[in-house]
Amino acid sequence: MLPIDGNRLNARLEAFAAIGATAKGGVNRQALTEGDRGARRLLAELALARGFEVFQDPMANLFIRREGRDVTLPPLLIGSHLDSQPAGGRFDGALGTLAAFEVLESLEDAGRATECAVVVVSWMNEEGCRFSPGCMGSMAFAGGEIPQAWHGKVATDGAGFGEELALTLASLPEAVMVPLGFPVHAYLEVHIEQGPSLEAAGIPIGVVKGIQGTRWLDVTVTGQTAHAGTTGLSWRRDPLHALTAALSGLYGAVMPDDPDARFTIGRISAEPGSVNAIPEEVRCTVDMRHPDPQRLDEIEELTRSRIGQEAERQGCLVQISRSFDMPPCVFPEALQKAIGQAARDCKVESVPMLSGAFHDALFVNRVAPAAMIFVPCRDGLSHNEAEYVEPSDVVTGCNVLAQATLAIAATAGTKAGP
Ligand code: HGY
Ligand code: MN
Ligand code: MN
Predict the structure, then answer these.
(1) Which atom of ligand 1 is nearest to the CA of 92?
(2) How many DSSP H helices and E strands does the chain contain?
(3) What is the pLDDT of residues 2-11, one digit of tens each?
């Protein structure tokens, strides 16, 4: 076993929670903001103080390397993300990134050599809420290129992606620049479950079997702005009337008809936004999730057709585009077994489960075997400032990660592989 310092880890979580802290006890550390840059800087400084190598790639993915016996072997990658939702929790992403750093420090404290290097990663823009899509850093890492279309992206607050990315890269001159993508032995990520099942079952560890599919749409319905007082019904081309009629039908159909489906309108806006003028244009986002890609297609088709029908009824125009498409993934059996074994070695119970949330591990799994370790969060609440994880569950998740790190690093260079 590798002893970890649970107090150090929980204190670290507190220190990072102070970066981008919100009045209600959460964090607003959206990707490529000052808060995100502040958290990256703190992690890099902690790493440099321990003598670890710190580097970043053109997508501002941040890496911290502790060398292994055989420098030629692809490293074991462990980590998560430091960016957050606008009204996010202190554990989503930060837990996995800091637990990984705790494992690296504990290896150093114990003077434990590993066959291959162990590299901690903090992926850029996992959340996708300021700049869509989500998982930009891990997606580009796995794909080996930055999609041209991303450079022109504009944030929800109007900032430009290219400028913010350049600022973020420049904010950490100590991090050596490396090309995008490198061979990886395996990838491990600790994350809060962001759902209620582990807490309800009283089980401290979830072994993630896979991640359901996610698809995002940007919807724009355009009508004609006109006087609220003088425009009778037959004269109106009201895009908000059309969109709300379509959405109330979709809320009434998608999730009630299918317990595995998730349908969320996270953002809606109306322009010109005047109290006494019919809107000219309304926009909204749609977040659809399902374990079955066929069902995702059906939900998208229903969404497009309902909005189209109601827009036509109101004499409005519709534009719908996909901003994110993340097909479901299954993690390799062998790695799931290794996580289960690591939990047994730590003498804690674990249960296999599917992830309702997407994660960077989904994209890394396309280029290297990946696995995830879930820990319970209070009431299953996440993407909420009240998000909370018991310190003991933080420590258990880190212990299982430490144990799995030792076991999987030991398979580097062997025929069996991870
Ligand atoms: O939205 C998600 O599933 C992730 O938490 N960003
Ligand atoms: Mn997350
Ligand atoms: Mn999240």
Answers:
(1) 5
(2) 11, 17
(3) 999 999 999 9
